[in-house]
Amino acid sequence: MAEGLATSEPPSEPVAEPARPAAAAADIPLLRIDAVVKQFGGFRAVDRLSLDIGAGEFFALLGPSGCGKTTLLRMLAGFETPDEGQILLDGWDIGKLLPHERPVNMMFQNYALFPHLSVRDNIAFGLKRAGMAASDIVARVAEMVALVKLDGLEKRKPDQLSGGQKQRVALARALARRPRILLLDEPLAALDKKLRESTQAELMALQRRLGTTFIVVTHDQDEAMTMADRIGVMDKGRLEQVATPRQLYEAPASRWVAEFIGDINLFEGQIEPRDSRLAMAPRLTVTTRDAGTVYVAEPRQPVTRTSVCVAIRPEKVKLSRYGPAPNTDNAQAINRLEGVVTDVSYLGGTTTYRVKLDSGVVLRSSMANTARIDVDAYGPSQRVVAWFTPDDCLVLEQ
């Protein structure tokens, strides 16, 4: 029997849900994780983590290996028990319930399909264990087969299926019991790039159709950014930031998040006193070692320290042979750096340039390829001007 599968299925008689507390209100989140701690010996895998996830949300837990995201997922599934804190589903505590006692199901990374059972029987397995009537099982399996587009493959065994087809069987089996929450542990890791991208779109469409809350664990930033409504970025057992994909990318809460999510240019510096003589919208002036004076748009949140880090995404950095005129009243020209192109990477839709500035530091620029033949492309050893506006910059406190 596949590892973990037996413990994730219900017994022959369905278990009644615990009574919901009288205080539970309609506006409480579907899932509330409250100051949860999980330790293994002296190692704290999850460290007083709190998080709310709403009904019908597609949520991603993203982070490096060993950050605690899979441990958290296993606690939600019931395969691990919190040492401290609570896991509340619809207002009642499920933290100490066994896996089959909670309306949650988990799709494993290796799919955990029974090799000796057909597609139909793999999907039906949990329904039979739950004591569902035979006629209802037939109807539910047919519904799941149609849902994940496995028509015509019902009699095949797992070794007769492609990786993508196995993934669909595992998904259908996990959804057959109609869980309140579906947990997905690196669900697309075994698929090739093209199939992974198409499956991402199918998962998103399926989740919207069903309205089921999906919680996916992944280390793939593109995967999380593509599929999730919100993302929780984890490191060392804690949530560093919870936000929408756009907020995470455009307004990271810390230098660590900024560096973890996508590519970014960073310049350390000091905020200078304001110069009221400059005829421009409110700006901060930051003196940096590697980029000289950089002007940054006023942050929404007050900056409490003078030592900061200026961050600019590569796609915000423009390149040209001469650059705009160096006029401080011109927002387009206010940040202007010169250097030499050292590397060029053509990626189809974009071209990435590495520019060694006169200070010696390397600046990355990513520019869209809008024409089939780009006469303005830059080559190695070519001298260029890199420029960006104050609105393109972020200020991150050290």
Mean pLDDT comes to 86
Radius of gyration (CA) equals: 26 Å
Strand adjacency order, main sheet: 6-7-8-3-9-10
CATH class of the largest domain: Alpha Beta
- Using the 3D structure, state the CATH architecture of the largest domain: 3-Layer(aba) Sandwich
Q: Into which percent range does the helicity of residues fall? A: 10-25%
The secondary structure category is: alpha+beta
Which residues sit in consecutive blocks of at least 5 with pLDDT less than 50? 1-24
Briefly note the CATH topology name of the largest domain: Rossmann fold
Q: Beta-strand percentage?
A: 25-35%
Shape: globular
Number of domains: 2
